[in-house]
């Protein structure tokens, strides 16, 4: 295969980002040299996407590149951070130039639309895997932790749920049209960066829904030392989900399917209208799905047998 | 295998770093929240170490953990940056608790001695590989780029060369004693962080020697648009290298063996004495090995047939 240097030069050296991107110099040096803005916190996260674990190895390469960055950016969205920079650690088994060009197109495309500068990375031999480190900035008093939820908060989710799991089911059935809304949700998820920025002065806490609503709700509640009561019927289901999976499986996908990359936020009831209005301005819905409580566990979920359920107390209904 | 959450909790949640480490909060949140110091540049780099590509899969797990961080920190050393934070993306095939404990001990040990706080990461299934993102800080006017070398500079290297390649040869011959100086050089390389800090106001340019002296010299010269004349006889050879490999192979290992993680610096001749004095204070030698010139290519190297040679013009001797 081509050397690491050749690969990097051919596909991953976009127009070197300049001072306006906060990059002093360094793409191609031992390190990238970044200029964080004074007074802001730096939010950093890494997510690795592995072929046939996190995405199908035969998915369109543009989607694979896009998605690897999207799932990392979703963590910045959940903190209310503004994306600035990323690094990519790419493991490749073969040097397929056409594949890499499409992969790079997907990755660079989301870099552009999200305002994220690719400032470094490496390429190694191995099973296809993409590790993306993202860095963003947020004013210290506006960062959205998982731990800030308060008793009596409304729990609400952006957009719709279950689309990630529904898209995976469709992929396994042979659907290959990326224009199908569920397949698009699974393979080209939109990190809710604008929603995180819009809600960071209203919400008490947030998390992105990557492992499934119930599992991620558990993380938020554990960090905040609270419980919750959900209205399972209130869950906003992804377009086409009931038609594709049937009603019961659709609800199961929304509760515990994972890969949705929507935001789950905990916010005071008094802020719900304003939050809803702001997201509507972004073309995005915000749906209240329950309230926090001091009683540990999650009550009010009627389904069982789904992933993550063992972490929860069964509810009353 | 144990879930990602269990693995992270068991081995990779050291005492959560506090404000003194510049960590506002966030280990276990969607992102870590860091507080870079105002006025400094942020130096970032990622390096992925893959089993049986970058290290033997059956190397001592403590060495594997140590080494994965060391090779990333070496990039900070080459910029003259002070390490602050790191993230680890770990791919594992099996959940061997004893192995992981040793691996974590090696990693955390170098975190401690280098002043690097582990602030996040992820664990995925796959062939053993460790991607480490490091972040450090450096005053803008002191950062050591590859591109700053000037005509007539002295080229000098810290420590000794060839030990990485020599250690690999010994490992393949069955040597397993980590106390053997060459094996230690290969499996437990010491990132030259203190040397980078000590030289950053004296040197014009620096690079760490990971691909081999000639290959990395080429990178530095290309970035600085210069050539060089080397004195191959001046190369400082690692302890035990000639005995292990013989004289010719020892020189070849020093020129192009790679994995040495020493620093190659370009500095004015007038600064050489002071630079040498400072490194001596750190217990480290600094050896002049040549000078830069405006004539492109590297002259003065008598050996040929080694990796990287094709990138260079043959020399005069």
UniProtKB/TrEMBL annotation, chains A, B:
<keyword id="KW-0784">Thiamine biosynthesis</keyword>
<keyword id="KW-0418">Kinase</keyword>
<dbReference type="Pfam" id="PF00586">
    <property type="entry name" value="AIRS"/>
</dbReference>
<protein>
    <recommendedName>
        <fullName>Thiamine-monophosphate kinase</fullName>
        <ecNumber>2.7.4.16</ecNumber>
    </recommendedName>
</protein>
<comment type="similarity">
    <text>Belongs to the thiamine-monophosphate kinase family.</text>
</comment>
<dbReference type="GO" id="GO:0005524">
    <property type="term" value="F:ATP binding"/>
</dbReference>
<feature type="binding site">
    <location>
        <position position="75"/>
    </location>
    <ligand>
        <name>Mg(2+) 4</name>
    </ligand>
</feature>
<feature type="binding site">
    <location>
        <position position="45"/>
    </location>
    <ligand>
        <name>Mg(2+) 4</name>
    </ligand>
</feature>
<feature type="binding site">
    <location>
        <position position="210"/>
    </location>
    <ligand>
        <name>ATP</name>
    </ligand>
</feature>
<dbReference type="InterPro" id="IPR036921">
    <property type="entry name" value="PurM-like_N_sf"/>
</dbReference>
<keyword id="KW-0479">Metal-binding</keyword>
<feature type="binding site">
    <location>
        <position position="75"/>
    </location>
    <ligand>
        <name>Mg(2+) 2</name>
    </ligand>
</feature>
<feature type="binding site">
    <location>
        <position position="122"/>
    </location>
    <ligand>
        <name>Mg(2+) 1</name>
    </ligand>
</feature>
<dbReference type="GO" id="GO:0000287">
    <property type="term" value="F:magnesium ion binding"/>
</dbReference>
<dbReference type="GO" id="GO:0009228">
    <property type="term" value="P:thiamine biosynthetic process"/>
</dbReference>
<keyword id="KW-0460">Magnesium</keyword>
<feature type="binding site">
    <location>
        <position position="47"/>
    </location>
    <ligand>
        <name>Mg(2+) 1</name>
    </ligand>
</feature>
<dbReference type="InterPro" id="IPR010918">
    <property type="entry name" value="PurM-like_C_dom"/>
</dbReference>
<feature type="binding site">
    <location>
        <position position="75"/>
    </location>
    <ligand>
        <name>Mg(2+) 3</name>
    </ligand>
</feature>
<feature type="binding site">
    <location>
        <position position="259"/>
    </location>
    <ligand>
        <name>substrate</name>
    </ligand>
</feature>
<feature type="binding site">
    <location>
        <position position="47"/>
    </location>
    <ligand>
        <name>Mg(2+) 2</name>
    </ligand>
</feature>
<dbReference type="InterPro" id="IPR016188">
    <property type="entry name" value="PurM-like_N"/>
</dbReference>
<comment type="function">
    <text>Catalyzes the ATP-dependent phosphorylation of thiamine-monophosphate (TMP) to form thiamine-pyrophosphate (TPP), the active form of vitamin B1.</text>
</comment>
<comment type="pathway">
    <text>Cofactor biosynthesis; thiamine diphosphate biosynthesis; thiamine diphosphate from thiamine phosphate: step 1/1.</text>
</comment>
<feature type="binding site">
    <location>
        <position position="30"/>
    </location>
    <ligand>
        <name>Mg(2+) 3</name>
    </ligand>
</feature>
<feature type="domain" description="PurM-like N-terminal">
    <location>
        <begin position="28"/>
        <end position="138"/>
    </location>
</feature>
<feature type="binding site">
    <location>
        <position position="30"/>
    </location>
    <ligand>
        <name>Mg(2+) 4</name>
    </ligand>
</feature>
<feature type="binding site">
    <location>
        <position position="211"/>
    </location>
    <ligand>
        <name>Mg(2+) 5</name>
    </ligand>
</feature>
<dbReference type="InterPro" id="IPR006283">
    <property type="entry name" value="ThiL-like"/>
</dbReference>
<dbReference type="GO" id="GO:0009030">
    <property type="term" value="F:thiamine-phosphate kinase activity"/>
</dbReference>
<dbReference type="GO" id="GO:0009229">
    <property type="term" value="P:thiamine diphosphate biosynthetic process"/>
</dbReference>
<keyword id="KW-0808">Transferase</keyword>
<keyword id="KW-0547">Nucleotide-binding</keyword>
<feature type="binding site">
    <location>
        <position position="54"/>
    </location>
    <ligand>
        <name>substrate</name>
    </ligand>
</feature>
<feature type="domain" description="PurM-like C-terminal">
    <location>
        <begin position="151"/>
        <end position="297"/>
    </location>
</feature>
<keyword id="KW-0067">ATP-binding</keyword>
<feature type="binding site">
    <location>
        <begin position="121"/>
        <end position="122"/>
    </location>
    <ligand>
        <name>ATP</name>
    </ligand>
</feature>
<feature type="binding site">
    <location>
        <position position="309"/>
    </location>
    <ligand>
        <name>substrate</name>
    </ligand>
</feature>
<feature type="binding site">
    <location>
        <position position="208"/>
    </location>
    <ligand>
        <name>Mg(2+) 3</name>
    </ligand>
</feature>
<dbReference type="Pfam" id="PF02769">
    <property type="entry name" value="AIRS_C"/>
</dbReference>
<feature type="binding site">
    <location>
        <position position="146"/>
    </location>
    <ligand>
        <name>ATP</name>
    </ligand>
</feature>
<dbReference type="InterPro" id="IPR036676">
    <property type="entry name" value="PurM-like_C_sf"/>
</dbReference>
């Amino acid at each position: 295969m081509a050397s690491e240097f050749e690969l990097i030069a051919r596909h991953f050296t976009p127009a070197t980002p300049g001072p306006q991107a906060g990059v002093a110099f360094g793409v191609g040096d031992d390190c990238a040299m970044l200029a964080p803005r004074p007074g802001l916190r730096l939010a950093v996260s890494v997510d690795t996407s592995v072929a046939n674990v996190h995405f199908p190895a035969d998915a369109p390469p543009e989607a694979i590149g896009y998605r690897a960055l999207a799932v990392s950016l979703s963590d910045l969205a959940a903190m209310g951070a503004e994306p600035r920079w990323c690094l990519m650690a790419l493991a490749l088994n073969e040097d397929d130039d056409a594949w890499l060009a499409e992969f790079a197109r997907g990755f660079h495309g989301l870099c552009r639309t999200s305002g994220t500068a690719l400032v470094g990375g490496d390429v190694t031999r191995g099973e296809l895997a993409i590790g993306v480190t993202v860095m963003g900035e947020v004013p210290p008093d506006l960062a959205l932790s998982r731990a800030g939820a308060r008793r009596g908060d409304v729990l609400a989710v952006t957009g719709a749920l279950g689309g990630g799991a529904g898209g995976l089911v469709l992929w396994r059935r042979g659907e290959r049209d990326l224009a199908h809304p569920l397949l698009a949700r699974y393979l080209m998820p939109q990190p809710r960066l604008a929603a995180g920025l819009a809600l960071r002065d209203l919400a008490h806490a947030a998390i992105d829904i990557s492992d499934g609503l119930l599992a991620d709700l558990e993380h938020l509640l554990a960090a905040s030392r609270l419980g919750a009561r959900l209205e399972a019927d209130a869950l906003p289901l992804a377009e086409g989900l009931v038609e594709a999976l049937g009603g019961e499986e659709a609800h199961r996908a929304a509760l515990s399917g994972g890969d949705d990359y929507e935001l789950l936020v905990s916010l005071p009831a008094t802020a719900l209208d304003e939050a809803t209005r702001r997201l509507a301005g972004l073309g995005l819905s915000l749906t209240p799905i329950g309230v926090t409580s001091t009683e540990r566990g999650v009550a009010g979920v009627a389904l069982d047998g789904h992933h993550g359920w063992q972490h929860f107390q069964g509810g009353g209904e």
